[in-house]
């Protein structure tokens, strides 16, 4: 099973393992969380995705017991977490800066929580050895934290969070300090490890590719609310709002007005011409149509099931295995086409090229005010 295909197949079905109901939080006059409700199954990996200030880290801190909610209720495994201190929640946390103890060795860092809970020494040693083997750090057990690379420190932080077999693992952008190649490697390793152990995880990130790669479901947050909660493919293919469309991936976006209603679609007049989109809106209503860049092809439409327009090209970007073409459009409209690298050479800046995409791939929204 690939990342994002669904729930951990080894997990025990328990839809309400973590229940967040009507949670709200204010800082002075600013409402940073507004009626957040979310259920997470045992063994599920859910990402909280959104820009800085959207409330995702505040929600994580409430789950960890580092903040108290002003309203709402949180239960974990059927137990109400209200008033419970962090160390009584059986929740593991991996912080953005890892928060490792520099005066302790790798093994001592991993053992910290077990010792605080007064586990037997023999059991602690066995558990630490097991976890260090899982994160491929067994030979470094006696090494100082300062002697580790960033990726190794991240693995120690994960092992420490998992040591006490928590009911929930919270990860606060733990990969953000790593370089791109190492971050991509660690995404795969982290996902595989949590699945292997059947852990329930909440992952905070502002990186949409990371969220799509790691998650069973993604909660896209904006201004203290969840705009959409769905699987990665649904988030990308059927974004519920213009905000989700804009935040997750790129898109060609054209504004206009509905000029015709059809049985299962509407026709929207845009600056590039009429665009047909599945859905229903009243004639005359301001509308926004969109399509993902990789769904667009250079050339004319093969039949009536396709939209077709002529696009003036402003610039191109070479990205190795693929290229992007950017349209020369005015106002809020924008156009991006993704093509295999060798297919973009005919579309030079200053030229006008025919492009087409399936009507079924077109997204329709009321135009934002």
What does this structure look like?
The protein is built from 8 helices and 20 strands. It is α+β, with helices and mostly antiparallel strands and 369 residues long. The protein is elongated and about 75 Å long. The longest helix is centred in the middle third of the chain and has 18 residues, at 180-197. It folds into 2 domains: 18-241, P-loop containing nucleotide triphosphate hydrolases (Rossmann fold); 250-366, OB fold (Dihydrolipoamide Acetyltransferase, E2P). The protein has helices at residues 56-64, 106-116, 121-134, 150-162, 180-197, 208-214, 232-237, 242-247, and strands at residues 18-27, 30-40, 45-49, 71-76, 79-80, 91-94, 168-172, 201-205, 217-222, 225-230, 252-261, 265-270, 273-278, 286-291, 297-298, 306-318, 322-327, 336-340, 352-358, 363-366. It has a 6-stranded mixed sheet, sandwiched between helices. The protein has a 5-stranded antiparallel sheet with strand order 13-12-11-14-20, with no helix packed on it. Helix 3 (121-134) packs across helix 4. The model is unreliable at 1-13 (pLDDT under 50).
- Characterize the biggest β-sheet: 6 strands, mixed
Rounded radius of gyration (Å)? 24 Å
Structural class: alpha+beta
Strand residues, percent = 25-35%
Identify the overall geometry. Answer: elongated
The succession of helices and strands, N to C, reads: EEEHEEEHHHEHEHEEHHEEEEEEEEEE
Based on the coordinates given, report the CATH architecture of the largest domain. 3-Layer(aba) Sandwich
> What is the number of domains?
2
Q: For this entry, what is the oligomeric state of its chains?
A: single chain
CATH superfamily descriptor of the largest domain: P-loop containing nucleotide triphosphate hydrolases
Give the termini separation.
Answer: 42 Å
* Major β-sheet strand ordering: 6-7-8-3-9-10
